[in-house]
Amino acid sequence: MTIAPKNKTIKFMKTTILIILFALTACSKDSTSSLLPPETQVGANTFGVTINGKVYIPRDPTGINVGPSGHGMKYKIDSFLPWSEIFVIDGASAVGFKMVIHFKELLPNITGIHTLKTSNFQDGLDSSLVDHIYFKIWDSNISNYAYYGSLENQGEVNIKKFDGSPNWILSGTFNGKFVRYDNPNEFITITDGRFDLNLITLQNTHFP
């Protein structure tokens, strides 16, 4: 009489373990984290943003081609022209993510509020000579990536700290309204973007 309940208990435990293992596996492939990194100004080499209810963070590429970078996050400057960029990708998840925060100026002239302008969805030398942001996220409805870019005077990057030599800490937040590249009637609003970079150690930081 006690065998049946015991068998049911064992079966239930096995089922529960399988569900947990499946959930952990799914999370490891997801393009999102459950938590934003804290908003700090210590050069922690962190980045986070919530888009459509999902938290995106940088992850070093392990097979997902979402941008020309072998690293989860970079700070890029040009040797001759006055621009700089925070370049973020998630190349370790099942679908990936990419964001470029483009500044029209070089350090140390970027502290304070930067009002975002209309993005031309290009980075580097191909970018417009304005402060703008664009990103791409996976759209399951079309089984492809969707691009979104900043709109004229409808967002900002707030550089809250720039600590030059020898520390080279760059920290701030960003927010705004972003329009879809192929649909001018579709928008995404971001309210909680943040980054905290040490420009010396960033290039050697691992983003798992």
Primary descriptors:
208 residues; mainly beta; single chain; 10-stranded antiparallel sheet
Explained architecture:
The chain is mainly beta. The longest helix is centred in the first third of the chain and has 27 residues. About 11% of the residues have low confidence. The relative contact order is 0.18. 13% of the residues lie in helices and 42% in strands. A hairpin with a 4-residue loop joins strand 7 and strand 8. Strands 1, 2, 3, 4, 5, 6, 7, 8, 9 and 10 form a ten-stranded antiparallel sheet that branches. The radius of gyration is 20 Å and the shape is globular. The protein starts with a helix and ends in a 10-residue tail after the last strand.
Secondary-structure topology with pairs:
Layout (H helix, E strand, L loop, with lengths): L2 H27 L16 E6 L2 E3 L16 E5 L6 E7 L6 E7 L8 E4 L16 E8 L4 E20 L5 E12 L2 E16 L10
Antiparallel strand pairs: 1-2, 1-10, 3-4, 4-5, 5-7, 6-8, 7-8, 8-9, 9-10
What's the helix-strand series?
HEEEEEEEEEE
Overall 3D form: globular
What is the CA-CA span between the terminal residues? 51 Å
From the alpha-carbon coordinates, what is the Rg to the nearest angstrom?
20 Å
Residue fraction in strands: 35-45%
Class from helix and strand fractions: mainly beta
